[in-house]
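Issue 218. Parser rejects a valid record. Input:
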Amino acid sequence: MNEQLQEFVTSRGAQIHVDAATGVIRGVKLLGLESRNGRRYLPAALAQAAALYEGAKVNINHPKGSPLAARDYQDRLGSIRNVRASSDGLFGDLHYNPKHALAEQLAWDALHAPENVGFSHNVEARTSRSAGQTLVEAIVKVQSVDLVADPATTSSLFESAGASTSLVGRSTPITVSAMTLESLRAARPDLVEAVRAEAAAEMIVLREQVDHLQGELDKHTRRDAARALFREFGLPDPAHASGPEQALAGSQFLEAVIAAPDESSMRLLVEARAALIAAARARHQAVGEGRPQSREQHDGARRAPLDARSFARLIRR
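Output the parser choked on:
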């Protein structure tokens, strides 16, 4: 038997996710399995009807008089999208006009007093009787999903009538071990989004820490490579360089080598500096041994002791 169904009953509170700026309330309860009017909706009937609820119009209150009566323009609030069936009913997202006269009231109630408002459907359904109870075997047509103060198959915008509040706000209690990401996303998208945002923030901090540690590791690796080149070409350890050679092979030159773009450039710098220092040492030794010298070398021999500036001048010759 087909009949037109509307449900009315009191509701109780639940917390849901509201985006008042864009006019979206996510994870709303559209239809429960049990009605306080004595009807029971078969789970298969709800699963098959999910597609009928997609895009369903949402009006303020049920129509006056006939369930099929025309609706006034000001009654139209929005529509239902992203409908999905679960073990305890149908869920979806309410997309509403944030400029509607009742939009601000709806957003406030959804955030602070969801027991004040809920959904009640206006549908044509095939029913039967069993053990004194009306069974809804199939939903044939969805006229509208109406926003009412006293929904019958749902106790608020989120929970089913007569059911206890669970960990994730569903009408059927659910244990942590039975919880899935999909059930949590359907029931509490706000929590999923909060966890995602927190994880993203922590990931940024961790990435910065990793980049810093990698930079320090690269710096130490390049410093070790530079010191190895110093040893290979016979340059003094920068930490122990003294006298004239400190100006040419000291810590300042070590930092310049470390800052070179690649290992080949580092090697060229050290090799060239080693050649300069070797030439300067040879000139200085020739001066000390009294071997024939040019005028410039003779002038240089008069300067004793040889300081860093003189040593550098020798190298430039």
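Fixed in the parser; the record now loads. The two ends are 111 Å apart (CA to CA).
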